Amino acid sequence: MFVELKKISKKFGNFEASKQVSFALPKGALAALLGPSGSGKTTILRMIAGLETPDAGEIIIDGQSVKDLPPSQRGIGFVFQNYALFRYMTVFDNIAFGLKTQKTPKSKIKERVFELLSLIGLDDLAKRYPAQLSGGQKQRVAFARALAPWPRILLLDEPFAAIDAKVRRELRAWLRRMISRLKITSVFVTHDQSEAIEVADRIIVTNEGRVEQTGSPIELYRSPATSFVARFIGESTVVSDCRALVGFENAPEGEGAVRPEFVSVYAQGEAVQFENSVQDGEIESLAFRGDALEVSVKVGAYSLGANYSLEKPPLAVGDQVKVLIYRLYAFESGRAVLISNNRLANGGAGYNFAI
Known about the structure:
The chain is of the alpha+beta class and 355 residues long.
């Protein structure tokens, strides 16, 4: 593995920002540190960079322990969420800054800066100042400046936070293309799961200073290891009592999570595939999503999300419907356990309930 954190811990006073954090990334990985505010993700990033010192544990980059190395000797490129560009320097000089501090020859600096300007698509803006750039252009310049000294690892702290929604979507796709092209090991911090899923090939989910789970976006979505990941990833409805739902009378007692793809909604008069497995519901809201309706349906005490095909009979708010819940994640001792509707065991033989 190219980057390894082994049992890293960090306290600020009495606050434990990192608790025995361990994970490993292969060379060329594009990883996201994903979690809510205060979960410890930025502290992890800053410890890799050398901007914070862990109280315990080991940080290894390319087989070398860097725990005691200063930031300047770690081969790190860092992109800050507020760009941190020097406003009195031109785009050229901003990108060249790290090279100049390394006393790189002027000819090499010029060659490298124009190579990066071409890479980020801003060849004709070398003489402009940051105030003359858009938010997206500033972030590209910050990206180029971090890459200029040929770092081994690129770290990005909430790289899209200061950019409006439309440009943010464009930059996500742009960043993924650039990282794939450069093959540089990269780690970025975000609290936005859609951002992490869209950009990263590995996601490290953090919560209260701990790593809850590490895996690909598909692995985290399909196989959440803990109740936190099951709640945090995707658009789940948390139910306080799994056994209150039809077909889950034998589920573990307590909370669980129901995802929209686990739910089917049947309009009045529509044939129901598994009569003994459904329960009554009422449509609370409908939203058009192109090829389907996004539905909120009231089932007992819970409002469940579901997707409803436009090919089926039309629905309206207030309609009484039948609801079939195929499966859910039950929370048991902090773990997320996938449970299928037990009434489908016979009536559902041969039916594909894959996520």
